């Protein structure tokens, strides 16, 4: 009985220490152990950057793996059609039904200037999805996407690309975040003319370049945008937990390169620690 109590306490202390440990600054992590014959790799991406962080270590990891998994299967021929269906708000709700006439005029002028579409053309879109349309305007450079760069490498190596979730799964998240909150954030941006968002993305780019994944997660929690700061359960945690069984399955089948948003890596409910809790060695490649 005494031995069992000691073992329980020891396990509890180890769990606490593991959860408290700060993760190293690295976007690339090696997944091994737990019966795996060959290692797989986990990599933190960013959807809008000036320069990708892809280096020799990333290329070496690609050479050691046989397939690519991203958040979405970007090669899916039905992706565009599925995305169009998921862009719309449910129950006939429109953006103009959520705001005043004066705000609608202001938002229309903002969208024409920064997106190239009038509000009338995208009135049924989920407000958060409208926000993604002006992403290129936040950068002082031609926009690149790390995910697309990974896909390019995968194609050059004649490897297939798969997704950890469907586009329907991903877009459904924004039905669970109140449309009212989404439109409030969109109107904030329209009224301040992208100023705050430009500052925020510049901070994010600097931290991403430094590969500080702990700070990446902190930036999302401290964001002035309520969608990212108040709804991490929907945006990050639930999705991380849903991905773990899929990741476990595919890494057992063959060595896999896995690319997910860098904000998903860190934290007690981040992909790294969730995999470690399942018994895998997940180590930084510096």
From TrEMBL:
<keyword id="KW-0645">Protease</keyword>
<protein>
    <submittedName>
        <fullName>TraB/GumN family protein</fullName>
    </submittedName>
</protein>
<keyword id="KW-0325">Glycoprotein</keyword>
<keyword id="KW-0472">Membrane</keyword>
<dbReference type="InterPro" id="IPR002816">
    <property type="entry name" value="TraB/PrgY/GumN_fam"/>
</dbReference>
<dbReference type="Pfam" id="PF01963">
    <property type="entry name" value="TraB_PrgY_gumN"/>
</dbReference>
<keyword id="KW-0732">Signal</keyword>
<dbReference type="InterPro" id="IPR040230">
    <property type="entry name" value="TIKI1/2-like"/>
</dbReference>
<keyword id="KW-1133">Transmembrane helix</keyword>
<keyword id="KW-0812">Transmembrane</keyword>
<keyword id="KW-0378">Hydrolase</keyword>
<keyword id="KW-0479">Metal-binding</keyword>
<keyword id="KW-0482">Metalloprotease</keyword>
């Amino acid at each position: 009985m005494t031995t069992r109590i000691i073992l329980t306490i020891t396990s509890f202390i180890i769990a606490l220490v593991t959860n408290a440990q700060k993760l190293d600054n690295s976007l690339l992590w090696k997944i091994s152990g737990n019966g795996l014959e060959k290692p797989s790799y986990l990599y933190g991406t960013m959807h809008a950057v000036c320069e990708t962080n892809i280096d020799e270590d990333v290329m070496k990891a690609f050479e050691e793996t046989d397939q690519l998994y991203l958040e979405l299967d970007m090669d899916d021929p039905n992706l565009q059609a599925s995305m169009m269906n998921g862009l719309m708000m449910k129950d006939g709700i429109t953006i103009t039904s959520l705001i005043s006439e004066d705000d609608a005029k202001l938002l229309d002028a903002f969208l024409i200037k920064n997106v190239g579409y009038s509000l009338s053309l995208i009135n049924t879109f989920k407000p958060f999805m409208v926000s993604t349309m002006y992403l290129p305007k936040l950068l002082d450079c031609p926009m690149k996407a790390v995910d697309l760069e990974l896909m390019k490498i995968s194609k050059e190596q004649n490897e297939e690309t798969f997704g950890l979730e469907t586009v329907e799964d991903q877009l459904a998240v924004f039905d669970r975040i109140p449309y009212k909150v989404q439109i409030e954030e969109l109107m904030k941006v329209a009224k301040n003319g992208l100023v705050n968002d430009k500052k925020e993305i510049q901070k994010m780019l600097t931290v991403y370049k430094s590969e500080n994944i702990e700070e990446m997660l902190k930036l999302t929690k401290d964001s002035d945008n309520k969608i990212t700061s108040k709804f991490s359960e929907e945006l990050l945690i639930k999705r991380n937990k849903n991905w773990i069984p899929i990741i476990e399955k595919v890494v057992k089948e063959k060595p896999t390169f896995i690319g997910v948003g860098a904000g998903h890596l860190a934290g007690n409910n981040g992909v790294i620690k969730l995999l470690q809790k399942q018994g895998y060695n997940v180590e930084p490649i510096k």
